[in-house]
Amino acid sequence: MKTALLLCTAALFAASTSQSHAQGMPPEAREKIHHLFDNHTKVKRTVTVTDTGYTALTESDDAATAAALKAHVKQMSARLKSGLMVRRWDPAFAEYAEHYDEMEHRYEPTDKGMKATVTGKTPLAIKIAQNHAKVISDFAAKGWEAHDRNHPAVESGKDHAPGGPRRKK
Q1: CA distances from 1 to 7, 8, 32 (A)
Q2: Is the pTM value of this prediction over 0.90?
Q3: How many CA atoms lie within 13 A of 23 on its CB side?
Q4: For the chain, what are the domain ranges?
Q5: Secondary structure of 71-126 in the HEC alphabet?
Q6: In whole angstroms, how far apart are CA 26 and each of 23, 32, 124?
Q7: Which pLDDT belongs to residue 116?
Q8: What average pLDDT does the chain have?
Q9: Kind of pairing, strands 43-50 and 103-110?
Q10: In the sheet where 53-60 sits, what is the strand order?
Q11: Alpha helices in 24-62 (DSSP H)
């Protein structure tokens, strides 16, 4: 009986470990985002809120930081398009991932970073996109301090349990 319980516990641990590892950020992506948090004072971000979402220009005069910005946007865009989560414990990000397909994302590289235009296809998606812009601006302004806290979701009272919802395909 003890052996069966031990094997069952080991199997559950292995399944949860491999699942969380599959959802985890690859080392290259982690390196880029950590560079951005470490160098947030070198990042300039301007957001224009529109009736349908927002446009943001995020740049750096530092070449390494500008390159990290470009790589990070590509990595996170690919991750979200594939249905993987980002910061699943953070209510704002869980909500953003859940509604990702309800937004159009256009990215244009600039000499010093990226221009992003995000347009919501529904009134709720517009609010979620604008909330996301605020959160990313918070990261750019405060670095690790902003990283270390959760950000509120738009839908008040919506339960975003740890692990976050998977977005609809």
Answers
A1: 10, 11, 48
A2: no
A3: 16
A4: 42-153
A5: HHHHHHHHHHHCCCCCCCCCHHHHHHHHCHHHEEEEEEEECCEEEEEEEECCHHHH
A6: 9, 10, 31
A7: 96
A8: 80
A9: unpaired
A10: 43-50, 53-60, 113-120, 103-110
A11: 27-38
Range in 47-56, 71-80, 85-94 with the lowest mean pLDDT: 85-94
**In the structure encoding, which two tokens stand for residue 132, read together?**
């996301």
Q: Which residue has the tokens 């399944």?
A: 15
Tokens read off for 154? 């738009």
% of residues, the chain, pLDDT over 90: 49
Tell me the pLDDT band of 33, cut-offs 50, 70 and 90: confident
pLDDT tens-place string over residues 85-104: 777 888 888 898 899 999 99
Q: What are the structure tokens assigned to 127, written together?
A: 């609010």
